[in-house]
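thread: overnight batch results

M.L. [08:02]
morning all. the overnight job finished for the chain we discussed friday. pasting input first so we're all looking at the same thing
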Amino acid sequence: MNNKKYFAVVVGLGMLGLSACGSSDGGTSSDSKTVTLVSHDSWAVSKSVLADFEKKSGYKVKVLEDGDAGQAVNKAILTKDNPQGDVFFGVDNTLLSRALDNGLFQPYEAKGADGIKAEYRVDQDKHRVTPIDSGDICVNYDKAWFTAHKLQPPTSYDDLIKPAYKNLLVTENASTSSPGLGFLLGSAAKYGDDGWQGYWKKLKANGVKVVDGWEQAYNDEFSGSAGGKKAKADRPLVVSYASSPPAEVIYADPKPTTAPTGVAQGTCFRQIEYAGLLSNAKNTKGGKAFLDFLLTKEFQQDMPLNMFVYPVVDGAQVPAEFTEYGPQAKDPETMDPAKIADNRDDWVKSWTSLVLK
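M.L. [08:03]
and the structure it wrote out:
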């Protein structure tokens, strides 16, 4: 989900309010009134919401953004004995086991954890991480292109290998991109350990295009995005997010009455992001207060329009644009984090040999 902040810039006209306290000077503060959050570079919160936490708690929040999710997790593991901060946000289910196996977090059951929807709860015996948000990696389609070509958009993984959709899909490199990896994992969940490679052989034969990352795929290659229209892109299918269509509406000027893009609901993989109290954190009391804050309705309801993700707490409302243009997938592919940990590296190596060579 670490492409959303960029998304806010490129498809529209400016970014939503972000925390003004970002820093990159490294090292956590010994000041007991400062809480240092370490995150990937898509952390975002409305200034007023963060200010409210700071006022109520008495803690000042300092943010260290550390690249994409994989990079941030790896750096946090390497520095766990002398961590950069107190709380880490942004480890997702594709990387969770790596973080837990390396002892990145210490136990803490955040206040409000009993309100987290059951399907998002993990590590219930130790409470080393707290689920914060979820999102679906899905194939998006350009509605106008499919209407003009009198072709029904695909609805499933199986559709994508049919001749009618030859040379239409662009996806991201599974070894360098979070949505690219999510799409690979979704196919592995769908077709199993023995079937996913055969699926990708067919997808390659059907002309799938692979680029390094989401920005290039969505904004340069996908004909349905605002950026793609300017670039005269020619691929009407892209691996992106279920929340991408609402973003196309929210950032458009003037706003369209319907989203210009849609989601192939049968191609989705559920991504969940977690936060945790870092082992050896200097300000554990402040870190715990911040984790409690991340589960409040105030923060949970602020997330969608800042990070284009969905809340995990029961009763948290999402914006009308999400309900109308980007509802969560009803039956997404999922995979146990332990299975991902056991297979991820081998699958990515196999995928690279199969698809890129």
